[in-house]
């Protein structure tokens, strides 16, 4: 198998899938271990988790560099309720870029306490 593009392209594709609610793409991009981490992240962050934020308006991806075999990106998602930044480690798994680790970097509620 050959890789599909770069880790950056995979991160862009995945952030777009989060923004548009494309669950099939999200599931195709994540390993079971990272999915478990994402679920724990959701429990800790509540409505500010990227997986549960309402009407995500946009995102920004920052390359954080290599961590062993993984390429790490911080992805900040924006919505009316604020911003949430997640750290995502991408690695080649059987010739495809997959998210192998997920963590919460920061949560910034919107000024004025906007809610969903």
Tell me what you see in this structure.
By secondary structure, this protein is an alpha+beta fold. The protein has a single domain, classed as Nuclear Transport Factor 2, Chain: A (Roll), CATH 3.10.450.50. Helix content is 30%, strand content 40%. A four-stranded antiparallel beta sheet has the order 1-2-3-4. Strand 1 (58-67) and strand 2 (70-79) form a beta hairpin. Helix 1 (7-20) packs antiparallel against helix 2 (23-29). The N and C termini lie far apart (43 Å).
Shape: globular
* The first-level CATH class name: Alpha Beta
User: How large is the count of helical segments?
Assistant: 3
Q: How do the SSEs run, as a string of H and E?
A: HHHEEEE
Number of strands: 4
Radius of gyration: 14 Å
Integer average pLDDT: 87
Return residue spans where pLDDT drops below 50 for at least 5 consecutive residues: none
């Amino acid at each position: 198998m050959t890789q599909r593009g770069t880790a950056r392209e995979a991160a862009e594709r995945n952030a777009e899938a989060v923004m548009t609610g494309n669950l099939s793409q999200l599931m195709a991009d994540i390993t079971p271990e990272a999915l478990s981490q994402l679920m724990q992240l959701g429990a800790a962050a509540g409505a500010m988790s990227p997986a549960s934020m309402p009407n995500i308006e946009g995102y920004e991806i920052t390359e954080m560099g290599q961590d062993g075999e993984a390429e790490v990106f911080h992805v900040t998602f924006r919505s009316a309720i604020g911003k949430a930044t997640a750290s995502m480690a991408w690695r080649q798994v059987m010739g495809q870029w997959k998210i192998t680790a997920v963590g919460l970097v920061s949560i910034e509620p919107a000024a004025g306490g906007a809610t969903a």
